[in-house]
Amino acid sequence: MLNMVFLTNSWLSSFNQPGLCITVAVLLHYFLLAAFTWMFLESVHLYLTLVKVFNVYVPKYILKFCIVGWGIPAIVITIVLIINKDFYGNGSHSETNPFSDFCWIQENTVFYISVAAYIFLIFLMNTAMFITVLLQIHSLKSRTQKTSRFSKR
Asked: Where exactly are the transmembrane stretches of this chain (predicted)?
């Protein structure tokens, strides 16, 4: 959906309908945040699979992941819309090219907080999960090597 909204964004912004442009910008923002949220959930799943292998039972696992994966971006979008729906709009990047219009976030502060900081936070959490999984694999490998040396003796 992110790709579909992104590819049709410029065409839809050419209609010069503020409501349509706000809707497209909100959808683009939502699906972008949802994609990164699901990327984080994949790292959580990797952590649970490789580090917390035994005795990990999460009731309604998929439902909880869906609520987080689709819900957190919806909360962020709702907060931005409650503060001011005019943060979204049609931003022209070029006066000479009418096809350069793009429906997106118009305020830099809102962009940096609701997109850049969000993606940076997910990047940090994914890095932490990745390092944890690597350390777990390394310790498992070293334990296996020690066991095989002991059994050879």
From this structure: 20-41, 61-83, 110-135
Please give the distance of CA 131 from its chain centroid, rounded to a whole number: 19
For residue 11, give every residue at least 6 positions away whose Cβ sits within 8 Å of its Cβ, in sequence order, or none: none
102 forms beta bridges with 91
Q: pTM for this one?
A: 0.85
Distance of CA 82 to the CA centre of its chain: 21
Q: What are phi and psi of 102, to 5 degrees?
A: -150, 125
Tokens 């001011």 sit on residue:
84
Specify the DSSP class assigned to residue 55.
S
Q: What is the pLDDT of residues 29-78, one digit of tens each?
A: 999 999 999 999 999 998 888 887 767 788 999 999 999 999 999 999 99
Q: Where are the domains of the chain?
A: 1-86+105-151
| Beta bridge partner(s), residue 89 | 104
